[in-house]
């Protein structure tokens, strides 16, 4: 009988299980003992692949942000107008609660606490790049007259704060489908910054051109997530 076939997906399975556990319990409630027991592995195997729990968190954050940036780049290429770009960003933010929910919850519930932690420099750089894109589109919208004058950095903080805590109240199995929740979110938020608030309805439309680009962007994000995941693992 030949030697056992090594599972190429073992490392990816560990990261998936860690992500799910952080989403459910938080970082402090996640430990190698429970991970190993759930996967039928030894704690030594987890240490062999990742070394520390901090390294697992780092990879979770970096994988997540690579997917998000891939999506925003698709949007920025397809939608040149600042109002359309911002609407797409908002649609995406809501849809993450469904299309990548486990990773989104794991990322969002711990990102602030570990934002400045050693070893998170790459993750922090990716988050900064993401934030700068939104700040820039808000500033551009003011320059072009699409948006009312306002502080783009403060608006970005308000926007991120609104989206960041959706995991605490949004129920994917609730009565309102995610497209309707996203449309309401976009309509309300854009009406507050647009120079012509009447434009918000068209940008929020679940059947509109902006959402069609959002769907293309999500496909790009899934492709990047699958590549980051490596053999044997699919993006959540």
UniProtKB/TrEMBL annotation:
PROSITE patterns: HTH_TETR_2. It comes from Klenkia marina. Gene3D superfamilies: Homeodomain-like (1.10.10.60), Tetracycline Repressor, domain 2 (1.10.357.10). Residues 31-50 bind DNA. Keywords: DNA-binding, Repressor, Transcription, Transcription regulation. The lineage of its organism: Bacteria, Bacillati, Actinomycetota, Actinomycetes, Geodermatophilales. Residues 8-68 form the HTH tetR-type domain. Pfam families: TetR_C_24 (PF17932), TetR_N (PF00440). It comes from the Bacteria. GO terms for molecular function: DNA-binding transcription factor activity; transcription cis-regulatory region binding. This is Transcriptional regulator, TetR family.
């Amino acid at each position: 009988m030949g030697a056992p076939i090594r599972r190429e997906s073992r490392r990816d399975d560990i990261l998936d299980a860690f992500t799910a556990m952080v989403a459910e319990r938080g970082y402090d409630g996640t430990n190698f003992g429970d991970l190993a027991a759930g996967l039928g592995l030894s704690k030594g195997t987890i240490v062999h692949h990742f070394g520390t729990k901090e390294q697992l968190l780092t990879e979770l954050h970096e994988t997540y942000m690579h997917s998000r940036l891939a999506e925003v780049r698709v949007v920025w290429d397809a939608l040149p107008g600042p109002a359309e770009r911002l609407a797409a960003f908002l649609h995406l933010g809501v849809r993450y609660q469904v299309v990548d929910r486990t990773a989104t919850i794991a990322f969002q519930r711990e990102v602030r606490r570990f934002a400045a932690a050693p070893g998170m420099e790459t993750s922090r750089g990716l988050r900064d790049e993401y934030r700068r894109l939104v700040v820039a589109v808000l500033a551009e919208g003011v320059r072009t007259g699409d948006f009312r004058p306002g502080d783009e950095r403060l608006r970005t903080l308000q926007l991120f704060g609104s989206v960041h805590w959706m995991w605490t109240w949004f129920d994917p199995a609730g009565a309102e489908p995610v497209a309707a929740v996203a449309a309401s979110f976009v309509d309300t938020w854009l009406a507050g910054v647009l120079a012509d608030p009447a434009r918000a309805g068209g940008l929020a439309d679940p059947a509109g051109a902006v959402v069609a680009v959002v769907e293309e962007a999500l496909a790009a994000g899934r492709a990047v997530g699958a590549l980051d995941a490596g053999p044997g693992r699919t993006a959540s």
